[in-house]
Here is the input.
Amino acid sequence: MSTHDHDHDDADAAFALRTEALEALMTERGLVPPGAIEAIVRHYEQDVGPMNGARVVARAWADPAYRTRLLADATQAIAEFGFAGPQGEHMVAVENGPRVHNVVVCTLCSCYPWPVLGLPPSWYKDPAYRSRIVREPRRVLAEMGLTIAEDVEVRVWDSSAEIRYLVLPERPGGTDGWDETRLATLVTRDAMIGVARAATPAGEDRD
Amino acid sequence: MDGIHDLGGMRGFGRVPWSEAEPAFHAPWEGRVFALASLALAGGVANVDSFRHAIERLDPVVYLTSGYYGRWLAATELLLRETVGTTPPRPGTLRSIDRAPRFAAGDRVRTRQMHPAGHTRLPRYARGLHGTVALVHPAFVLPDTNAHGRGEDPQHVYAVRFAARELWGDDAEPGVHVHVDCFESYLEPDAP
Here is the structure.
């Protein structure tokens, strides 16, 4: 094991100890109902994640009336699936098209639409993404494997208030007649943040 | 406050450390910290704005080296030290107000030039600049006052669209617009 791993393990052990102390203090102050921690952890590990957003996007692709509702009032349209809760109080869907590509960030912290995407991945919370995507989005997206043509406008959405944005990616070709369940398999976390396109039926292309 | 958290436009952080899939929590303590912070908020130790401000007040080196849940842990520790009693927060941040929105989609606006010592959600890179209202959002609690226990002062929020050139000058990439969600009091009408 390298020195770096030792350092990481030491830091992790220190964080774990501090967490135990915090839990003891909060329990003493009556802030931790029995079973509450386990219930919260379980919810975010099992019940929410990109599979929720994928169902929303797949329905918008398959059902034009739903797409209209989603773009008009995303909070309501998403609630049709029962998806709601913290960091999803007011949702806006932004649609990609042949001349527009949308991408979402939170430069000030790490705001992210939990009910439809789950908790954010590490790279979304990293200073590199938060600092650069507002200044050089084309370059950052290209580094992440997504080249945006010069004649396509890039729209960056910095989630600086309590509005949470969901990117509605373009429906891939070769999916005529697919039902929602099958379409949802093409909708990735990254496509709904706007750092990738939806997957293609053939397979693995991120671009 | 002009703190380390206000990262938009900074250089020096390198490539985005992308990974395809990862667990919600990388270690058991991360999940417990997430839950404890959520319970602290639910129990009225803090509101969402004073919690964010506590993260912003961490030592800059601690901020950059602790990771996301390390920051949540340090902020929750800080708030528990500072808070004696608890004030049960009103749920959510959306509020209905009688005042009509001051601005409409398409209006030209200018963000205020400001550098408050306390909490704000107007990023440094978007201050004192000209933009256009793209979306009119409902009214929300104002973080600038709510973070400091000075009331909710709910007001409309606007997605303001800035041309990249307005933000970054000659270094801007072509064909880019950045939208920043701005509370009404961050904005003034643009002089024609």
